[in-house]
Amino acid sequence: MPPRLTRREWLAASAGDGAALLTSCGGERPVVPSLVSIVRAPVYDQRIYETVRRMLAEHRLEVRGRNVVLKPNLVEFEPESSINSHPLLVHAAFEAFRAMGAASVRIAEGPGHRRNTLDLAEAAGYFKTVPRFEDIFVDLNLDDVTRVRPPRQFSSLGELYLPNTALSADLLVSIPKMKTHHWAGATLAMKNLFGVVPGGIYGWPKNVLHWAGIDESIADLHAAFPRHFALVDGIIGMEGNGPIQGTPKRAGVLVAGRDPAAVDATCCRIMRIEPLKITYLRLTSGGESHITERNIRQIGESLAAVATPFELIPEFRWARMENS
Amino acid sequence: MAIEILVSKQNPDGGWPYVRGASWTEPTVYSVLALLAAGETKPARRGLRWILATERPDGGWPPQAGVGQSSWVTALVALLPPERLGASVHARAIAWLLETTGKESTLAYRLREWLLGNPRPPEQEFPGWPWIPDTAAWVGPTSLAVLALDKEYRRNPLPAIGVRIDSGRQFLLARMCHEGGWNHGSVRALGYESRPYPETTGMALAALRGVRSPETERALMVARRFLAECRSADALNWLRLGLLAHGQLPEGYCHPVRIEDRTLPDTSLGLLVAEAEKGRDCFSA
What we know:
The complex is a heterodimer.
Chain A: H1 7-14, E1 34-40, H2 47-58, E2 67-72, H3 87-99, E3 104-109, H4 117-123, H5 126-129, H6 133-136, E4 137-139, E5 145-148, E6 160-163, H7 164-167, E7 171-175, E8 177-181, E9 185-187, H8 199-202, H9 207-212, H10 214-224, E10 228-239, E11 247-257, H11 260-270, H12 279-285, E12 296-300, H13 303-306
Parallel strand pairs in A: 1-12, 2-3, 2-7, 3-4, 7-10, 8-10
Antiparallel strand pairs in A: 1-11, 5-6, 8-9, 10-11
Chain B: H1 2-8, H2 25-37, H3 41-53, H4 73-78, H5 82-85, H6 87-99, H7 107-115, H8 139-155, H9 159-174, E1 188-189, E2 192-193, H10 198-207, H11 214-229, H12 233-245, H13 264-277
Antiparallel strand pairs in B: 1-2
Helix pairs in contact in B: 1-13, 2-3, 2-13, 8-9, 8-10, 10-11, 10-12, 11-12, 12-13
């Protein structure tokens, strides 16, 4: 079995062989710059397969012989809306990882609101788009579980039961929608990990996470899954009262990287949200360093070229970059 | 055919998985109820032994063997006949339900909110049931707890049981969506209306058996609309049970043939609904 990487090794690898540690003049700890790519993708069509293949190649992911689990964001039965991760993107990632030599690629999700997960996936178009979907899909709400204690604790959760499919993955690939969120500000790759918490144990919705603190629970889950890659569906996202009742917002981009915090921070900048005003990003980053713009090695499109302000509900308008 | 599927999917330990893998309490209880209704007593007895072995010291049941917390599935266990489960075991399940409320109804939480000067939302006036202790009450677990207690009340009409049934039903009525039907629990979130779901609407209507009000009429209209549109076996099972509880399932209704069972609870609940349509409703008698 290939050796498992720690988060430190994983992120160091992501920076490339020649990357030097950056040190700031403000006494911050040295950080390894995280590689984040932004690629234009104006519509959901067949070109997305080649786009995703190229994006993953840029990140030099070594998945040959490893088990990859793709974690989309499935929320509601509204296929015409922009609530759920688009099945074409998830299938493009599935095909790309198979072509890269992964031993197995599965799609797994545990929706937080609706219990009938496969019906939800069918309504979202997954059965039509992904051949033999039912054979490669795992409902994380009903998966076998193991009790774990996240290595870093920000919430009062303590131990948490988590699904074995996600825990045993050599690479967990978070494929969320780029959306605003009425309680967290933005829901991206890190918040998408709420879907690995099993509803079969904690219920629908996963209210235990709300009582333990949404931001703190996101940070706990981030710590629990160190082998994590993020691929954000920003082709059509959601603004306003996300993650469910917002309105579609076209950003026309895909954003990817090995460090979900850096990817989420970049997505926030695209949405014109100040990342350090998003509590879970601030918690995870220790309030500085690797989510600051200068410590992200960004490739592809520039932020200036793709930034498009997402409408925020009044409770979060203070988090706009313009107000910083 | 559905019964053969249930028998073939029983795990060696006597329980049932949702689809495959380890045994869980929810699919095991529904399978046992369906097998008992079909007269398949041998696999049902093995299932009952699994259920008895997984009872927790507090009289409740965990969602899965080995999980260190009792949960909402205790209401499902309480739906099993006491003569099959054992009278004392059944009584402990009922006691666990009577002692359990959503966190927002606990004295400690209410005192804290009072000290902070936070007004009490009207929908928190009536205690419901949570998925797991120390979290808020929701429509799904409250509906199941009311069903279990209502069934017990018909055998054993204790005032304490009647009080929780009444408050549970008030909880459901207070949480009904503006347009009728039920979401998970919140009527509004940050000023936005919640939309009803078919499955929770069916569950709540089943728990409101015998309650006639303008609210339930509105919910029944929503349930009939969902019944015509919905394409989920789980949701259709609960909608049928909910409409049956109010004598409102359209006469001659046929389950759409192209709807697939996704999980074993879909299959076993489908069998139980078919029994209920013949007048043998294990959720009420």
